[in-house]
Write a structure and sequence with these properties.
Layout lengths: L1 H39 L17 H14 L3
Helix pairs in contact: 1-2
Length: 74
Amino acid sequence: MANTTNGSLQQILKNDSKVYLGIFAVSFCVFLLIAMLSQVMTLQWRSWLPGAEAEKSLIGGVKGAVYTFMSNLI
């Protein structure tokens, strides 16, 4: 019985990690697109995305914004 429960728990954790990765990837692409378009139009995009204010690089700012966004989902 314990083996069945452990197997079910591992399957749930595997599915949760796939969902988390999917949300992260989609959010990263959307925020990267916003940041790149804003960068091309010479707009101050870092103030628009929470978590990106202190970052110096584009990718670091987008990653910070995605992590901040995802922490608010829970």
